[in-house]
Model the fold of this input.
Amino acid sequence: MKKISILLLILMILPMMVFATGQMASGGNLRFGWWGNVARDDRTNAVVRLFQQVNPGVRVEVEAGVAFAAYWDRLATQSAAGNLPDVIQQDVSYIKSFNNNGLLQDLNQYARAGGAIDLTNWSPGAVAAGRLGNTLAGLILATNAWGMIVDPAVLQRAGVTINDATWTWADYERIATQINTSTGVKTIPPFNVRQVIEHISRQFGSPCFAANDRELGITNNQTAYNAVRDWMNTEMRLMQAGVLYDIQDSWIQGKAMAEEPLPLGKTWNQMNWSNQLVGFIDASRRDLDYIMYPQFANKTANGTYYRASMFISITSRSQNKDLAAQFINFFVNDLSAGRILLVERGAPVASHIREDIYQVVTAGDRKVLDYLTKIEPYTSPADPAYPAGAGTVENPIMRNIMQEVLLGRTTVDNGLAQIVRDSNAELARANQ
Done:
């Protein structure tokens, strides 16, 4: 059914293709790789087909979405063999490392006035998010924010109302317990450990990664360190009370969304980026909401920020960089492409795309756009791109240690000390 709906969408927007943005490509071949899921694959493949129709003689070979961790393993293998795709999806955890290793093409030459990539409808801040020094290493594909997907039907059954502008971790613990007592529905364990630690650390004046790129921000910020420990103790109490969903099942990576505990009705919540809401609504086949993450009552700053959901970049060894730049321009600026991609990757960056799709998006898509507008007063500026080693810090270091804590194999104090020690060792090694 989903593939049929995508096909119908293509047929509906074919008349728009005469207004395709940018120069026509004369021919050539490209490879394009991304991470994602079935919903992303369907939409991305549809845009690729449109680009090929608008540009006869062009062939784009797709390397469809795999799970996040598997994607970086694939790129590492391809990089070692000198065989990276021409165009790749990038993440804030890896773009700095790829750029430092000379694997990305500077897009400045294509983004100048009259170049292949038109940034007329992009804010200076959006463009700056892809800059590393003087290099334009990538363009944001969309923006999103960290938060929580929740099942409003379960909240109603439990008699729970959440004011996400004010709720704290103490509220979260109380609400999770009430939901479990009233309905038997569990709370998702915190498998996205790095994102939570970042959200907490920012509330007390430290980025996730220190400015020297060689240690975590909480290393020399005792208040932030103590807050992370308090959060870990909260999760441990919920675990001991039987409120959390199965730890080992939660830590399994690469599941289809329909196999996650929230769509299956086993939990009332899911921690994730806002662009994931639409996919979870589709997988759950019921209405879901998206709310801000709990914060600490004694915070000194807002932990929430607008994040580049991902970037799109050209690799430095591409043999067809001009065509790659035209493809990127089509992907981020063309109205027909925008009406296919919608907000699956997050809210579009180009103003003309965002304004256009708001009129046609589903109720779930509109929830994402409205959420990103709502949270503006509760955000603070994003931190710099993550240093080399950040991906390893996130997974396996933080994830594995937090799992050991929740399974009772080490204490909260020892686990947090090990997270800092092992993370700092990896960051120091990667940023010598």
